[in-house]
Every structure is written in structure tokens, then in C-alpha cells.
Write a structure and sequence with these properties.
Keywords: DNA-binding. One of its GO terms (molecular function) is DNA binding. Pfam families: TetR_N. It is built from 11 helices and no strands. The chain is mainly α. It has 2 domains: about 80 residues, Homeodomain-like (Arc Repressor Mutant, subunit A, Orthogonal Bundle); about 140 residues, Orthogonal Bundle (Tetracycline Repressor, domain 2). Helix 1 packs across helix 2 and helix 5 packs parallel to helix 9. The radius of gyration is 19 Å and the shape is elongated. It starts with a helix and ends with a helix. The model has no long low-confidence stretch (mean pLDDT about 95).
Length: about 220
């Protein structure tokens, strides 16, 4: 792994999420890792290429370990937005699979754990779309649709668990489902990237705290 590429990508990710893609300049990224602007341009052709690199790593975490010709150009990222949409749709399909197959052996605890893992796995990409939706309307449109499907799927699971007595009854099912998802989202995504106080909490501990509290609050 090229340590400077890694440093550039990590710094850019935080800046894109905290102050937005449009407001982030190459000079901001350079300052964050204490290198010159020229050094950044030695590695990347521009800000767009860095952004696409960040999104590509969401799809393929091992992408950053490859060897790259410098500067990295956008030729490497042809079709990356369509890849992201396909990934979101496949992730949603995988999340819903127990509704059709083995719901009897699927537990409330497994549901919350799986939901946390999905959100954590794609945290950087999802947050990037959320924070920069006006600059990237194609991704935002599909992301919103997937978020809606995620909510509907979670509601369907919870309805089944309520009916079989695993989860306590909820007067406002959709709103409570939204609350559960927002709790999961904060601990799986925002905690690491957009919160200044909790970014150093290990993922495993964050998951334990999040899952334990949701189970305690809603299990029958």
C-alpha cells in the first residue's frame, strides 16, 4: 500500500464528508496531511479523481492496495457511479433475503447485527452521497430509493417479530423503525466520519453498544 495515497484518500474522505465536496480544495487536502499542493497533483490529476478513488474504495476496499501510474486519472473510474448503484441494490436484496427463505430461523438480534454491518461496510460512500446530494443527483436519486427500501424491509422484519412475540408491539411502527435505523446509522457511519468526539471508538465496541441498547429497548 502506498502510504501517501492512503493519507490523501483518508484526509479527502473526512473533508468531503465534513465540509462537502464543493467546498473542499486540493490545498485543504494538502494541508491536512502536511504536503504541498504539487505533491497531491503528482499523485492525482485533480479533486474529481480523488473523489472517485474514495467511492471506488467503498465498492472494493482492496482497491487502495493496487499499484497505480501517477498521476491517477479518471480513466480508472469509468462507470463507477453505476457500480455504486448496483452495489446498493444488491446489498438491499441481500438484506431482504430472509423474508423469502428462512425467516423462522432468523432472529431480531441477527437482523440488527446485519443492518449495522451493512451500514458500516458502505459508510464512507453512503455518507458522501448524503452530504453531497446536490452535486451528485444521479447517486442521490438511487440512494434515496435504496434507503426507502431499507426502511420498508426493516419494517417488514419487525412486523414479523412483533407478530411472533420476539419484539414488543409498536404504536408507530414506521417512525420507530426510522428511529432504529437512525441509531444504527449514527453508530455505524457518523460516529467514525462526521462526529468529532467519538471517531476513536473501535467499530466492534460501537456495534456492541448500539446492538445491545436496541435489543434492550425493543425485545419483548
Amino acid at each position: 500500500m502506498d502510504t501517501r495515497i492512503k493519507a490523501i484518500v483518508e484526509a479527502a474522505t473526512l473533508l468531503f464528508l465534513r465540509q462537502g465536496y464543493a467546498r473542499t480544495q486540493i490545498s485543504h487536502i494538502a494541508k491536512a496531511i502536511d504536503v504541498s499542493v504539487g505533491t497531491i497533483y503528482h499523485d492525482f490529476a485533480g479533486k474529481k479523481e480523488i473523489m472517485h478513488f474514495v467511492l471506488k474504495c467503498t465498492i472494493d476496499p482492496d482497491f487502495i492496495n493496487k499499484e497505480f501510474e501517477r498521476p491517477i486519472t479518471d480513466n480508472l473510474f469509468s462507470g463507477v457511479e453505476n457500480e455504486i448503484v448496483s452495489l446498493l441494490e444488491q446489498s438491499q436484496s441481500d438484506f431482504a433475503k430472509h423474508l423469502e427463505n428462512d425467516i423462522e430461523s432468523y432472529s431480531f438480534e441477527a437482523l440488527i447485527s446485519d443492518a449495522f454491518d451493512i451500514l458500516a461496510r458502505y459508510a464512507a460512500g453512503c455518507l458522501f452521497i448524503e452530504k453531497n446530494q446536490f452535486e451528485f443527483p444521479f447517486l442521490a436519486k438511487h440512494y434515496k430509493a435504496c434507503r426507502r427500501k431499507f426502511l420498508d424491509t426493516m419494517s417488514r422484519y419487525l412486523t414479523i417479530f412483533i407478530d411472533n412475540g420476539t419484539v414488543r408491539p409498536m404504536e408507530y411502527l414506521e417512525l420507530t423503525t426510522t428511529l432504529i435505523i437512525e441509531i444504527l446509522t449514527w453508530w455505524a457511519m457518523d460516529r467514525r466520519y462526521t462526529s468529532f468526539e467519538t471517531s476513536d471508538i473501535p467499530l466492534e465496541l460501537a456495534k456492541k453498544i448500539c446492538v445491545d441498547n436496541i435489543l434492550s429497548a425493543y425485545r419483548s
